[in-house]
From TrEMBL:
Entry keywords, A to Z: Membrane, Transmembrane, Transmembrane helix
Listed transmembrane segments: 12-35, 104-129, 141-158, 164-189, 201-228, 248-268, 313-332, 352-370, 390-410, 422-440
Species name: Actinoplanes siamensis
Protein name as catalogued: Uncharacterized protein
Length: 525
């Protein structure tokens, strides 16, 4: 007797989506695995990692205790700081456990965060376009295509891009924003949001207020996706949408958010008005409109490729492109095999996805446009430059791209064969764009590695993990310390500058934890 046919042929399709969500970002980001740390990461990975590796619970109390100090500088973010320090500790733990240099451990943690962001984008899309209970049936074609589009956005578009700087933190922040919005969209159409909807949603709103400024975008995004799914996908009336569980869930988020966010923002505004705040916390509304087109297009891959490949070592059409393309084509082959078992969206669902993409992209770009530094760079013609908004803007751009693809080749407007071939052609274009993104990342890493400060920090990371207790080892490390000092601005080289003091504290904490000795015994005690 023949075995019974599988009544649920779609679980393997979900496994394929999970596989692509994990591998596409890793393929695109892999050329950056040895990229040297920059800015505060040069110190934080060592200082925070060594401090909290064996007593991780202490970082929670330290983050709360630091609130007055940071608030006086116009910076709140206690929960975001906890996450950032936790990521530093995880990075240092990989260095301790596996003997990896800290720069490699740092990138591995960032890669994992990028995978979580890709998964969060898929979850949001599925919750928005589903006409029934999300994830209770076959996945939509949108979910199957999205990993290729999101992966192509992970380009090292300059030193301030989230792909380069604080990637773990801002990838996770963006994933949090998308998952909160997905939770709101999932409740649309229910009579009640749940048995005990009140305090968890209110608490979540307060958590978002205490996380960081990018996390604040979860509130307007949640409200917008509730409206999009209710009105566009489920065709609910205005009254049903406004009185439904999704609207109540969003209202409870705001109820927890506003009592924390309003007083904090008032304190920061006073500090910034006095000129004593951290520049990244200030806002400049007067120049935001002029900078907005720049930030709205910052996610476009060709513009980001230009920023990544500006150095003297660009070889975008070299072997890196071919290797990445071959790896991605293997994933396209799996996609083609799964395509017949995906639920094809209609034009209405594609329109809802496009609106959701705009709901992600526009607030993220607006936040970037409010920053005075981004306004100056936009005025100078720096298109495609990455910043803190890059991770979320990339997800929004991916949603828009896939919405356009599925709308053009919607099954209701095309024959089955034309539909499948059109979708495959679109996926091949997305895979090729992701491969070029990987090659652009290779160019960026080669350019940065050629700079003297990056070389010094690369050698420092290697010396810390391969600690040589001999006199020659100490001499090498002291030479690296001297080279770090020599790379400082001329006015910061006299006496014992703060940058050098911070360097000594950070690397000494790391080597004392790993090897029981200071980094350079010739330095100040």
């Amino acid at each position: 007797m023949d075995p019974p046919a599988d009544r649920r042929p779609w679980p393997p399709v979900w496994r394929g989506i999970l596989l692509r969500s994990a591998l596409v970002p890793v393929i695109v980001l892999s050329p950056l695995v040895a990229l040297q740390p920059g800015a505060d990461h040069r110190f934080n990975v060592y200082a925070n990692g060594a401090r909290y590796l064996h007593r991780p619970w202490e970082l929670f109390g330290a983050a709360i205790a630091s609130v007055p100090q940071y608030l006086s500088l116009g910076n709140f973010r206690p929960l975001g700081r906890m996450v950032e320090w936790t990521l530093d500790t995880a990075t240092f733990a990989l260095t301790d456990l596996l003997g990896l240099p800290a720069n490699i451990s740092l990138r591995l943690v960032s890669f994992l965060s990028a995978v979580l962001l890709t998964l969060a984008t898929v979850v949001l899309a599925e919750c928005v376009v589903s006409r029934g209970r999300p994830f209770a049936g076959p996945p939509s074609l949108i979910a199957a295509v999205l990993p290729f589009a999101v992966g192509g956005s992970f380009v090292a578009a300059g030193r301030t891009s989230t792909t380069v700087l604080f990637g773990g933190l801002y990838f996770l922040t963006s994933a949090l924003v998308l998952l909160v919005a997905a939770a709101a969209a999932r409740t649309v159409g229910r009579i009640r949001p749940g048995a005990r909807p009140g305090w968890p949603a209110v608490l979540l709103g307060a958590v978002l207020a205490a996380f960081n400024e990018m996390a604040w975008l979860a509130l307007p995004l949640a409200a917008l996706v509730v409206l999009i799914r209710g009105r566009v996908v489920l065709a609910l009336s205005w009254r049903e949408t406004a009185r439904g569980a999704g609207a109540r869930f969003t209202g409870l988020l705001w109820a927890g958010f506003l009592p924390v966010a309003i007083p904090v923002r008032m304190i920061i505004a006073r500090r910034c008005a006095a000129g004593t705040c951290y520049s990244g916390s200030d806002v400049a509304p007067s120049g935001a409109l002029a900078a907005l087109p720049n930030r709205l297009t910052s996610w476009l891959p060709p513009l980001m490729w230009q920023r990544a490949g500006e150095g003297p070592y660009g070889h975008t059409l070299g072997p890196a492109l071919l290797i990445a393309l071959v790896a991605l084509l293997l994933l396209v082959r799996r996609f083609w095999r799964d395509l017949p078992r995906c639920d094809s969206p209609d034009r209405r669902q594609a329109g809802a996805l496009a609106l959701a993409g705009l709901a992600v992209l526009v607030p993220a770009a607006t936040m970037g446009a409010l920053n005075e530094q981004m306004q100056r760079l936009a005025a100078a013609g720096w298109w495609g430059l990455g910043w803190r908004d890059s991770a979320l803007a990339g997800a929004g751009g991916a949603l828009l791209t896939v919405a356009l693809l599925t709308a053009v080749f919607a099954r209701g407007q095309r024959s089955g064969r034309t539909h499948r071939r059109g979708i495959l052609a679109g996926v091949l274009v997305l895979a090729a764009a992701a491969a070029v993104g990987a090659a652009a990342n290779r160019d960026y890493r080669a350019s940065i590695a050629s700079e003297r400060p990056a070389y010094v920090h690369d050698r420092i990371a290697q010396e810390i993990v391969d600690f040589d207790r001999s006199a020659s080892g100490n001499a090498r490390r002291c030479t690296l310390r001297a080279q770090f000092r020599a790379a400082l601005p001329r006015e910061h080289r006299t006496d014992y500058p703060p940058e050098l003091r911070r360097f000594d504290q950070a690397v000494d904490q790391a080597t004392v934890r790993l090897a029981g000795r200071r980094f350079c015994t010739g330095g100040p005690s």
